[in-house]
Amino acid sequence: MKKIALHWQVIIALIIGIIYSVIAVQQGWVQFTADYIAPFGTIFINVLKLIAVPMVLFSIISGISSLKNIRQLGRVGVKTLSIYLATTITAILIGLLFVNIIKPGNFPSDASRLEKRVEYELWRSEHPNVPQLDDVHEISKPENAQLVASVRNRLSIQEMDETTADKLAKAMAEKKRGPLDKIVDIFPSNIFDALLSANMLQVIFFSIFFGVILMQIGKKDRKPVAKLVNGLNEVFIGMINAVIKIMPFFVFALMAGSLVASAGKDLAKLQEQLVFLMNYSWVLIVALVAVAFGLYPLLIHLFAKGMKFGTFIKGMSEAQLTAFSTSSSMATLPVTMDCVHDNLKVPKSITSFVLPIGATVNMDGTSLYQAVAVVALAQFHMIDLDFTQQMVIVLTATLASIGAAAVPSAGLVLMIVVLESVGLNPAWIAIILPVDRILDMCRTVVNVTGDATVCTIIANGENMLDYHSEKKYINSLFIIQPNFNHYYKMSLVEVKSLRLEFYLH
């Protein structure tokens, strides 16, 4: 019997996890799931993070040391940051295009939106330093007096939920930081503290610094260090390969545990998590799809000619499914590096440098989500943001994404910063909390796909994309061998053998 491909195993695990969560809520297995199933999902994420941090350290050093010279490193670094910045801004603009055309915040009834508008104006009246975005004053109209009194009374007794309060506290701490604090944070005072806290910007800086200096010392002294680093890097690659083999089981546990915990004993809430297509959610998903299957294919077509996007997506499927299940670019990083190197034929010298940086500074999906969510929330509160205010969103969302924690729901904290940048109530994040988890899965897929796209483009620009040369050689065999269908049905061992034949040839 033919073995089921790993990506299909993961998809099946996701579906079984969803089915189980529905049954668990109906049958009252919430506590059982929390005690005996969800922990395996936590173990999965912890193991991936365990591998990711040292893997970033050793892979970047290994990648830099394998480059020809400092000039090549500088060229690759500038290209990487420039393309990452360009794709992020483009993704945000695509999101704004969809949210301004469809206007998901206008879908609720006028009565509901008027109540939200009154809430906003009452909040603004309590914060005189918040800029006035328009000249509308619904709370001063006599016909709204009863509504205003009702809303004011409700707000006075309403308590903020713990999750929202926690996000606001983190955002306030971020707001108090100085303008250059993010730059200061890049430079670690202790590399071991950076590794323990998984501060990826600091780890990346140390890795680049170490790798550059390693390139400068004598060949005799460099060789044993480089050999040790390369060996350690291979060990962590072996660790991720071992984890991948049992990934479907962990994915099931992660999906089931997450959904059951979100739903609790309320089945309707669970259904809302799974099929939510109201307001901004479906617009966000459409925008994310447009980026993943519109922008990225275009970039692959223009700047990585010879590679079909179907080949690209197939090669990235395992990483995308891992990203969907973990909602963490950093936890997915080891799988992403494995897929880009093994399936897309990007050399390790490129993947080990470009992808870790991407997992830290390139958040196309997250930045798009922030822009769409902020504009949709403003529409829901009967606020029309003008062009200048939306450009502020573009700038703030781009800057906020740099160095953001590549972990689940980190985008919520950053969105508070974006909301405040245009004078909106940061507590509005509570409105989208019920669906944030499933949407976080979707935007993480876009983040990871964007990283791989840029990595492929960089490799192609450096004439280091092995896919092209292998393809040409295999195609040449088709002319000699009449039974060319054989090559499409090769096993992995046969493909590797053919690849070896190519390099020897």
Provide the gyration radius in Å.
Answer: 25 Å
Residue runs with pLDDT of under 50 for 5 or more positions: 269-277, 472-493, 498-505
CATH topology of the largest domain: Proton glutamate symport protein
- The helix/strand class is mainly alpha
Order of helices and strands: HHHHHHHHHHHHHHHHHHHHHHH
Largest sheet: none
Total discrete domains: 2
Terminal-residue CA separation: 35 Å
Strand content is under 5%
Mean pLDDT: 77
CATH architecture of the largest domain: Orthogonal Bundle
The CATH homologous superfamily of the largest domain is called Sodium:dicarboxylate symporter
How many helices does DSSP assign?
A: 23
User: Roughly how much helix do the residues carry, as a percent range?
Assistant: over 70%
> What CATH first level of the largest domain would be assigned?
Mainly Alpha
According to DSSP, the number of beta strands is 0
Shape: globular
Folded structure, characterized:
The chain has 505 residues and is mostly helical. It has 2 domains: 459 residues, Proton glutamate symport protein (Orthogonal Bundle); 32 residues, no CATH class. It contains 23 helices and no strands. Helix 3 crosses helix 12, helix 4 packs across helix 17 and helix 7 crosses helix 20. The protein is globular, with a radius of gyration of 25 Å. The C terminus is likely disordered.
Secondary-structure blueprint of this entry?
Blueprint: H1 6-27, H2 30-36, H3 38-66, H4 70-102, H5 110-125, H6 145-157, H7 162-175, H8 181-184, H9 191-196, H10 200-216, H11 219-245, H12 247-263, H13 267-275, H14 280-303, H15 309-326, H16 329-342, H17 348-361, H18 364-380, H19 387-401, H20 410-421, H21 429-461, H22 466-480, H23 492-504
